[in-house]
Design a protein that fits this description.
It contains five helices and 32 strands. By secondary structure, the chain is of the alpha+beta class. The chain folds into three domains: about 190 residues, 7 Propeller (Methylamine Dehydrogenase, Chain H), CATH 2.130.10.10; about 120 residues, Immunoglobulin-like (Sandwich), CATH 2.60.40.10; about 170 residues, PPM-type phosphatase domain (Phosphatase 2c, domain 1). The strands form eight sheets. Strands 18-24-23-20-21 form a five-stranded mixed β-sheet, with no helix packed on it. It is extended.
Length: about 550
């Protein structure tokens, strides 16, 4: 440690001499990183927090407050601590600061989160990963839960044996995990134990509607079952002021039990409180869910919530039946006026109306045809954009592709993949049918091929594509597909509902036909597709095609 301080002092003197020095008005704390090599964290006077790299003399400054006045203590950093996860915590008058060194994101925990004050003095981590924070208002334990859980703050005061409320930055952790915190009236020493894992139970003690208890003699009480067995409440529109009274049941330091509640449909976030009361007024008609949970004195939250589904019915004039009546009245009124106008003007306007309607229909039909043509062309261009822009360049293979697109969206598709070991994977296919559904099938097949192209098991790839197509639930639509893998002179291939592959053997001057019968992908689960292994030699030519070529000759 002394050598590191000496090196840092020499580097600091060198930087001052070269005028490339950190803007330090004063150093309040130094902490060497145990997770990052050559990193020194510096808490400064009025200039925030510095991350200094001893290897290249670079630094990064974290300004805590935008005020640049040198006498403003909002940029003071009094204490810096790096926890076992490599995350950095520091104390300031703005609260408990937290920096993740992996991305340098900074976050503050304040009184709004549960601290007794924003004036934090020192920080220590106990053997269980919880943080202990001293301040000018006592000592606080921050219980760190799972990644998706909110941190819980448990505040310790004089009743628990503190030397006083005011603590300094003096702190230490012994080898066995004892924590030392110094304050104005002495030092507190303790060995933190594991938090009480017994979760509290929570019970409802009353529900009040319009400030009247449902447990009393309410004439229209919505309760059907016992209060704590109630899971649903149906209320009329004038019963939209509702309050809940509840109590967490946990007898170890019960005064520190905490409550969190949320009315889904009204609250966006959980409301954390030590009060055993929650009220909601002027609720609009609709469906709500009241959720309630509790934490014990050590900040351990219950894993079971008490929930009540609440329905506030609309007034009769806002019911579906009322809206139907309103609609009928409007329709009848419009109809009556229309009939009166027609009798007076029908003879004069009939011819003009017919001409106008004919013109409008023609315009609408033209616009609709133009829209459909544009959409089909865009979909066709999208399909073409998914095809490979360049062919693989391999020293022992010459590859050529020909594709003639239809005027509408078709289902033809081909693609390539070259593996790390030089294996060339070729896929050619044709979705059944035409139009947008066929284009959707091609899009899905390309995505699945990109995922499984490197997999040497062709039959597994067929199985996965079939499974995904069936989950898409596109009626009467499937994918005909041929996949082959070429490694050196060896070929492994399989086909699902595709025309035979043709190989011209130069040495024998014959054309070999490879027929692999199989249902299209997505038609039948667990179909026993065949694998074919063969070889190619220099001068051989292999032809893969979809059903577009045979169909062309049929049309002729």
């Amino acid at each position: 440690m002394m050598n590191s301080i000496k090196v840092f002092s020499e580097q600091l003197a060198s930087e001052i001499q070269s005028k490339n020095y950190m803007p330090l008005a004063g150093v309040l704390y130094l902490a060497f990183s145990t997770k990052q090599d050559n990193i020194l964290w510096i808490g400064s006077l009025s200039e925030g927090l510095f991350k200094y790299d001893l290897s290249d003399h670079s630094y990064k400054q974290f300004k805590i407050d935008s005020v640049d006045a040198i006498d403003d203590n909002k940029n003071n950093v009094y204490y810096v601590m790096e926890d076992n996860n490599g995350e950095v915590w520091f104390s300031s008058v703005n609260g408990l600061g937290h920096i993740n060194p992996r991305n340098d994101e900074i976050k503050f925990y304040t009184q709004k989160d549960g601290l007794p004050t924003n004036y934090v003095s020192a920080i220590q981590e106990d053997n269980y990963g919880n943080l202990w924070i001293s301040s000018v208002a006592g000592l606080t334990m921050m219980v760190r839960g799972k990644a998706d859980e909110k941190e819980t703050f448990v505040n310790i005061d004089i009743k628990d044996g503190l030397q006083g409320y005011t603590f300094s930055t003096a702190t230490w952790k012994s080898d066995v995990g004892e924590l030392y915190f110094g304050g104005r009236n002495g030092v507190n020493v303790f060995l933190p134990g594991k938090t009480n894992q017994t979760m509290p139970k929570i019970v409802l003690t009353d529900i009040k509607i319009s400030d009247e208890s449902v447990l009393g003699r309410m004439e229209d009480s919505p309760l059907i079952e016992a209060l704590n067995n109630t899971e649903e409440l149906s209320l009329s529109y004038d019963q939209n002021d509702i309050a809940f009274q509840f109590a967490p049941i946990h007898f170890s330091r019960s005064e520190r039990n905490q409550i969190a509640y949320k009315l889904e449909g009204f609250n966006e976030d959980w409301v954390y409180s030590k009060l055993h009361y929650a009220s909601f007024t002027n609720l609009d008609p609709g469906d709500y869910v009241f959720r309630l949970k509790a934490a014990n004195g050590d900040g351990i939250w219950s894993d079971k919530e008490k929930t009540i589904a609440i329905t506030i019915l609309p007034p009769w004039w806002r019911t579906t039946f009322a809206y139907i009546i309103y609609g009928l009245v409007i329709v009848l009124g419009v109809f009556g006026v229309d009939r009166f106008q027609r009798r007076r003007l029908l003879a004069k306007a009939k011819q003009k109306l017919v001409m106008h309607e004919t013109e409008m229909r023609a315009q609408l039909a033209e616009a609709e045809n133009e829209r459909k043509s544009k959409e089909l062309e865009e979909a066709r261009q999208l399909q073409l954009s998914m095809l490979p822009k360049e062919l693989p360049q391999l020293p022992h293979l010459d590859i050529a592709v020909y594709m003639k697109t239809a005027t509408e969206v078709g289902g033809d598709y081909y693609d390539f993949h070259v593996g790390m070991d030089g294996t060339l994977t070729v896929v050619i296919g044709d979705a059944t049918g035409h139009g947008m559904k066929a284009g959707t099938m091609v899009t899905a097949t390309k995505s699945l091929f990109s995922t499984h192209a490197a997999n040497p098991d062709i039959l597994f790839t067929f199985s996965e594509i079939t499974r995904c197509i069936k989950q898409m639930n596109i009626h009467m639509l499937s994918m005909c597909l041929t996949i082959l893998k070429i490694q050196g002179n060896n070929i492994v291939m399989s086909a699902a509902g595709m025309p035979p592959a043709l190989i011209y053997r130069k040495q024998d001057m014959v054309v070999e036909e490879i027929v692999l019968k199989g249902m299209p992908l997505g038609a039948v689960s667990d179909f026993p597709y065949q694998l074919k292994e063969t070889t190619i030699n220099p001068g051989d030519t292999m032809l893969l095609l979809s059903d577009g070529l045979p169909e062309l000759f049929k049309k002729g």
